[in-house]
Design a protein that fits this description.
The complex is a heterodimer. In chain A, about 40% of the residues lie in helices and about 25% in strands. By secondary structure, chain A is of the alpha/beta class. Chain B has one domain (about 20-245). Chain B has helices spanning about 1-15, 25-40, 45-65, 75-115, 115-120, 125-165, 170-180, 185-210, 215-245. The longest helix of chain B has about 40 residues, at about 75-115. In chain B, about 45% of the residues are buried. The chains are: A alpha/beta, B mainly alpha. Bound molecules: adenosine-5'-diphosphate and magnesium ion (MG). Magnesium ion (MG) binds next to helix 1 of chain A.
Chain lengths: ~250, ~250
């Protein structure tokens, strides 16, 4: 379980996040939703320590991450995987080397053991026979799969995903969402997913936090989200022509 | 004020760069690649530049020393001194600032904007050390090798002038080249080269590391790298020449 407690974040004079407290549960897909520019990425970066919070703190299973130094944080970072918006695969390395990278950095496993694990996770994301390709040679969907494989290679307890299906066609987007849901269950991870895609919300929303202009505006799940009367939420959920017509 | 802030963050970054790598095996892998991309890939351009500057220096000296009282060996001697002391270390380093510096800045800048640096950081890896340190070590070792190579090629350039013109005979050139040779001059050049290598890699690494935005900013970082490192090379050249030769 990860807990954000009263987090605030400023860039210069502008306040981006205002007093946000959320509990992210273990074994569930915890969604952070909101419009573009709402502050989702900034919140995710605060959670993993890529940005420092200006007030409040983040606890990883009771361990206060925000007040830790580099060394203690490193211990927690070994336990977390992150899927970046563009994939952020290392251009130096091919698919296999990218996935093996966390194992090379954090374990003392024998090469055969690592190779086996790499093939295992690549198979898990349905990406076989691409081991020797370089990031520049992959399609958007493949890139996301490799990034997921890399994020889970070292058996993380916590998985962070920033817009996992942005830039993908609807079918591939669904596949990626399903994959994240399945993996979360299989590994019993605490998964946190940022998204503005209402379709993803309905697939994966076990525990949803709606952020509006840097404030936590609503919390619920994929069932309650369609019947709530929070105006800000409804403006977000029923923003597209399709959802508007369905609502009628 | 901005300049002081920049120097401050440059120094902070350098502190992160110069630290013990997380995994030596991975460091040596990266080092091997960097020795190749920074060093081996530069031999061609260094050879070209050195050959032609050696030839030009020999011609210039020959035309400017046409006093019959001065021995022809002086041409070989002066050509060697100019190549070893200035042309090889300074001119070749300036070329490398363009070739190697701009490529490092754009490589690291692209990694920054595509989230690869964040990805390293998230894994608890020190990205500055992981990315920049192998390049720094590679350049400090390989650039002096490139410069020694450049010295030889430059002298060959002068020798070719002696062979194919009637300004002087090849024998006169060779005995001039061997005249009064002090190995300190080479040592002095290597020190300069190593300092220039540090300037090139750290400025490029810094400019790439602080990129934010998109491809335009990456391009700008690359340009700034070439401008700043060239200016610094020229300044440090004067400084080191004063320090080491007086
Ligand atoms: N490094 C930064 N410096 C200044 N402002 C930023 C920075 N990163 C994000 N912001 C601002 O914070 C707000 C939220 O951004 P972000 O979290 O990326 O939104 P999203 O919900 O689409 O992920 C935006 O207004 C953005 O301009
Ligand atoms: Mg975002």
């Amino acid at each position: 379980m990860i807990e954000a407690k009263n987090i605030s974040k400023f860039f210069g004079e502008t306040q981006i996040l205002e007093d946000i407290s959320i509990r992210f549960e273990k074994g569930k897909n915890n969604l952070i939703i909101g419009q573009s520019g709402a502050g989702k990425t900034v919140l995710l970066k605060c959670l993993v320590g890529l940005l420092e919070v200006d007030a409040g703190h983040v606890d990883f299973d009771g361990r206060n991450f925000s007040s830790m130094g580099f060394k203690d944080r490193r211990a927690i970072r070994k336990e977390l995987g992150m899927l970046f918006q563009g994939g952020a695969l290392f251009d130096y390395y091919n698919v296999e080397e990218n996935v093996m990278f966390p194992l090379n950095m954090f374990t003392h496993q024998h090469i055969e053991e690592k190779q086996q694990r790499v093939n295992e996770v690549l198979k898990r994301v349905n990406l076989e026979n691409a081991n020797k390709l370089f990031p520049g040679e992959l399609s958007g969907g493949m890139t996301k799969r490799v990034a997921i494989a890399r994020a889970i290679a070292n058996n993380p307890k916590y998985l962070f995903c920033d817009e996992p299906n942005s830039g993908l066609d609807p079918k591939t987007a669904n596949l990626i969402d399903d994959l994240i849901v399945e993996i979360t269950e299989e590994y019993n991870m605490t998964t946190i997913v940022n998204t503005h895609d209402i379709n993803s919300v309905l697939i994966m929303g076990d525990n949803i936090s709606f952020i509006n202009r840097g404030k936590l505006s609503w919390q619920g799940n994929k069932d309650t989200i369609l019947i709530d009367d929070n105006d800000e939420l409804n403006a977000f959920v029923f923003a597209t022509e399709l959802t508007k017509r369905l609502k009628k | 004020m901005n300049l002081i802030k920049h120097i401050g963050s440059y120094l902070l970054l350098m502190r992160a760069v110069i630290s013990r790598p997380d995994r030596w095996r991975i460091f040596f892998q990266r080092l091997k690649t960097e020795l190749y991309t920074i060093g081996v890939d530069s031999f061609g351009i260094v050879a070209l530049v050195s050959l032609f500057s050696g030839a030009v220096v020999a011609i210039q000296v020959a035309y400017n020393i046409d006093n019959p009282l001065l021995p022809k060996t002086l041409i070989g001697f002066s050509t060697r001194q100019m190549i070893v002391l200035e042309f090889a270390p300074t001119m070749v380093s300036l070329i490398l600032a363009g070739k190697v510096g701009s490529s490092i800045a754009s490589e690291i800048g692209t990694m920054r904007i595509s989230g690869q640096i964040d990805a390293l950081e998230i894994m608890g890896i020190n990205p500055a050390n992981f990315l920049i340190f192998p390049k720094l070590v590679a350049a400090v070792f390989i650039n002096p090798a490139l410069i020694i190579f450049g010295m030889y090629i430059g002298i060959i350039g002068g020798y070719l002038i002696a062979s194919f013109t009637n300004l002087l005979t090849p024998d006169e050139f060779i005995s001039g080249v061997q005249l009064d040779f002090e190995s300190f001059t080479v040592f002095y050049s290597l020190i300069k080269t190593a300092v220039f290598a540090i300037i090139i890699v750290t400025i490029a690494g810094f400019q790439g590391y602080i990129v934010s935005g998109g491809s335009i900013q990456v391009g700008k970082a690359s340009t700034k790298t070439v401008v700043y490192s060239s200016v610094l090379i020229i300044l440090f050249n004067l400084l080191l020449t004063q320090l080491l030769l007086t």
